[in-house]
Specification:
Helix content is 25%, strand content 38%. A hairpin with a 2-residue loop joins strand 1 and strand 2. The protein is an alpha/beta fold and 129 residues long. The N and C termini lie far apart (35 Å).
Length: 129
């Protein structure tokens, strides 16, 4: 897995698994957030094709270790599914936009659409329902 900085956003690409350079990723995120005036980092995982449980656990441990705020943008489906896990999204994290997959059975086509919180997804006090 690779991490690059582009226009103030940390962009992740590749596969997040047990072979990912977790120590390097952690140091990159930590360095970036330490240099941020508000200790905030925008994270774009749209270039990560998939993640396994080892990779997700490693990312979770990075989140726990680093003091700052994590702002997710263009969140892919595999990461949205992790948000359902208790404590994965903490007060240290927020979500700006997600990538939603749609399927049309009439022509057997797939489309991925970017949905932004507060625009296509209404802001609610509670999303339990």
């Amino acid at each position: 897995m690779n991490v690059t900085e582009k226009n103030g956003v940390l962009e992740f690409s590749g596969v997040l698994n047990e072979e990912s350079p977790i120590s390097t990723i952690s140091k990159t995120v930590e360095k970036f957030i330490l240099n941020s005036p508000k200790k905030t980092v925008k994270l774009d995982f749209s270039g990560v094709k998939r993640a396994n449980s080892c990779g997700v656990l490693a990312w979770y441990k990075i989140l726990e270790k680093i003091d700052g705020h994590f702002h997710y943008i263009k969140v892919p489906l595999w990461l949205v599914e992790q948000f359902n896990i208790s404590d994965f999204l903490t007060i240290k994290c927020s979500v700006e936009s997600i990538l939603a997959n749609f399927y049309c059975p009439q022509n057997d086509s797939h489309e991925t659409v970017l949905l932004t919180i507060g625009k296509e997804i209404p802001v609610q006090a509670n999303y339990d329902n």
